[in-house]
Amino acid sequence: MIKTPSVVSADEAISNVKSGDSIYFSCFGCTPEILIEALCRRGRSGILNNVKLFHTILMTDATYAAPEFDNIFETHTFFVGDTTRKPTREGRVQYIPISLHETQTLFRQKYIPIDVACIAVSPPDRHGYVSLGLSVDMTLAVVQNAKKVIAVVNPNIPRTFGDALIPYSSIDLVVHDDRPIKEVIYPEPSEIDKIIGRHCAELINNGDCLQLGIGSIPNAILSLLENHKDLGLHTEMFSDGVIPLVQKEIITGKFKRIDQGKLVACFLMGSHKLHSFINDNPLVLMKDVRYTNDPFIISQNPNVVAINSAIEVDITGQICADSIGTNIYSGVGGQLDFIYGASRSEGGRAIIAMSSCTNKGISKIVPTLSQGAGVVTPRSMVHHFVTEYGRVDLYGKTLQERAKLLISVAHPSVRESLEKAAYERFKIL
Questions:
Q1: Which stretch of DSSP H or E encloses residue 176?
Q2: What is the DSSP letter of 4?
């Protein structure tokens, strides 16, 4: 007889959490807010201590990382977002640096054993399956390996296919909630974003298979591809900017060698328009992160174009993408996964695209990385580099040649000082 999970309240479900347990929360639009709220209530009761929490981007305030929960919750994240930057700086959230495709390994191989998985899913279908919706990523690995699975069943969570579908019977406890899924609305691309987008679009050919990161630059790039044909998509995430290109049959996946015709991703972040687009959409194939982000799988498609961004780059091409000096700003994510995958792909191109300066006018192209800055992508793996001042190809270039090329796309106000630094370091004019 197939097991049917028990339906309980959020507080009843969280009463299963004990001191010393390790808890995982599914992320993005599938953040199980009602369970996090219940866990905080249980934490305030004084009966818990040393509970370890694991997550990436939760779309809720980081109340669980407030000072009142010191010694009660110990929070770990694989990616620092808006709500966790301050508690990370203050030491109440601990960052785990790891490439995204390896996160699932931590759970499958029990480097991080999970006692309770707290997830959010769609209602069960007539075949007895629920969908992980917007957050398959490492969540599937956790569900398969956790001692207990608590699921928030929410009718607003879109039903997606692929690895997102799991048996309703694999859940131990169910909590019902019908609150709306939170949207992510990206700002309109700035003029600088549009110029950068144009430079990147010039590197994209008909039939290419795309991976784009998060933010306004990817959206600017997508808006400039309306004259392209038969593009494909294999990425860790996508958002609203993909929708019109699919509807206009610009993204068709016709020339992909694997998952032909499918929009492949492991998590999604966007508006309610995106949620509606992916719901019950057979074109959307949600996969385990060990599939989407494995460089050897990525490279099976020809002409992969991977576009990612950076916080800072030195004149040798070292890419810092996770920190501002010693302060963690985001995370390793999938940047290196896709740069390596695109580099291995037949005809592939790996692109780092960023504005030349911060909003405060500070150059992002520097003689040496800031003290404490982390190298996410080593200079040996950097190919195309783009700013609003142009695009250069660093692949196979000497340190001296790299310095000249990077200086040529730096902000004009800092080129002289960068040239002086390059001369002192490499004895080049």
A1: strand 173-176
A2: -
Rounded Cα distance between 319 and 337, Å, is 14
Q: What is the pLDDT of residues 206-229, one digit of tens each?
A: 999 999 977 789 989 999 999 999
Q: How far is CA 35 from CA 24, 121, 167, 337, 342, in A?
A: 11, 13, 21, 32, 39
**Sheet (strand 319-320) strand order:** 319-320, 312-314, 365-366
Tens digit of each residue's pLDDT (9 = 90 or more) over 110-155: 999 999 999 999 999 999 999 999 999 999 999 999 999 999 999 9
The C-alpha angle 334, 167, 64, rounded to 5 degrees, equals 55
Q: Which of 145, 150, 119, 142 is nearest to 28 (CA)?
A: 119
Residue 182 forms part of a structural domain: no
List the beta bridge partners of residue 357: 363
User: Is residue 14 located within the same domain as residue 112?
Assistant: yes
204 with 98, same domain: the answer is no
Which residue matches tokens 């309980």?
8
Q: Per the structure block, which two tokens stand in for 348? A: 């592939």
- pTM greater than 0.90 (yes/no): yes
Distance CA 343, CA 144 (A): 32
Q: What is the CATH number of the domain that holds 335?
A: 3.40.1080.20
Count of structural domains, the chain: 2
Q: Are residues 231 and 341 in the same domain?
A: yes
Q: Which domain holds residue 88?
A: 6-176
User: Of 236, 249, 312, 388, which one is the catalytic site residue?
Assistant: 236
Residue 236 falls in the annotated catalytic set: yes
DSSP state, residue 135: B
Cβ neighbours of residue 33 closer than 8 Å, sequence gap 6 or more: 59, 60, 177, 179
Identify the domain boundary among 150, 176, 202: 176
